[in-house]
Design goal:
21% helix, alpha+beta, elongated, 2 domains, 30% strand, Alpha-Beta Plaits
Length: 244
């Protein structure tokens, strides 16, 4: 009998090309699918995530679902997975769900965090960005507020992004201080390819004085011209959680 399971996945994205399976590079999706196949009579499985994180991006709360033809309990599946997959991926809260549950389409809100260091830190260098220049915190806060609401993010995602619409609704956007370092939190209904990294990088360009607040505002809902965007490194970005 085919049953659907949902699971929460944590991963260190350092050694992966991102969530989505690729032909020649290791991905989170492929690693999970390969580990689940023996639990599905060695038949291929497809693991659907709530979103496709980019190469090098991490997650503490990625949600996914998978269909399996077995009689194993969710707890047994979770234990079997964690015994097989590399130790930079961890599956938790595996549970059987309704057959129409969809990790991507049922998601209402997604939360991302981006970590910025105030000084070099060799122990966090794979999980945060040290910009290496001075910046104005007030400018960061002002930019963050402008992002809240419904906007066309055409100029704040990769040009190759494949999406029917580039309009997203942002419920929360803020910078917070944590032990002299900064954390940017953004909550939205959906996110486009590299969108959060481009937002962070572009806000930092304004905060260092290269552009004005007005230049940044012009990026929103304006498909052409003006400010050159900057993409912050992937290592500082975490998918924190998904709400349904």
């Amino acid at each position: 009998m085919i049953r659907r399971f949902a699971m929460e996945v944590e991963y260190d994205g350092t050694n992966y090309c991102g969530w989505q399976r690729q032909a020649n590079d290791p991905s989170i999706q492929a690693t999970l699918e390969d580990a689940l196949s023996p639990l599905n009579h060695q038949l291929p499985v497809v693991v659907i995530g709530s979103g496709r994180t980019d190469s090098g991006v991490h997650a503490t709360g990625q949600m996914a679902h998978v269909d399996l033809d077995n009689e194993l309990s969710a707890e047994t599946i979770e234990k079997a997975l964690n015994a097989t997959i590399p130790d930079d991926i961890f599956v938790k809260n595996c549970r059987e769900v309704e057959k129409d549950f969809h990790a991507r389409f049922w998601a209402k809100r997604r939360t991302y965090l981006y970590y910025v260091l105030s000084k070099p830190d060799i122990f966090r260098r794979k999980y945060a960005w040290f910009p290496g220049f001075d910046y104005d915190r007030e400018r960061l806060d002002r930019c963050a507020v402008e992002i809240i609401g419904e906007h066309d993010f055409t100029r704040l995602c990769l040009t190759s992004t494949e999406a029917e619409t580039r309009i997203c609704t942002i419920f929360d956007s803020r910078w917070e201080t944590a032990k002299e370092n900064l954390i940017y939190q953004i909550v939205g209904n959906r996110f486009l390819h590299s969108m959060v990294r481009i937002l962070v990088g572009s806000m930092m360009e304004v905060a260092r004085g290269k552009y004005t607040i007005a230049d940044f505002k012009n990026l929103l809902d304006n498909p052409t011209g003006g400010m050159q965007v900057y993409t912050a490194p992937a290592r500082g970005l975490f998918l924190q959680g998904v709400q349904y």
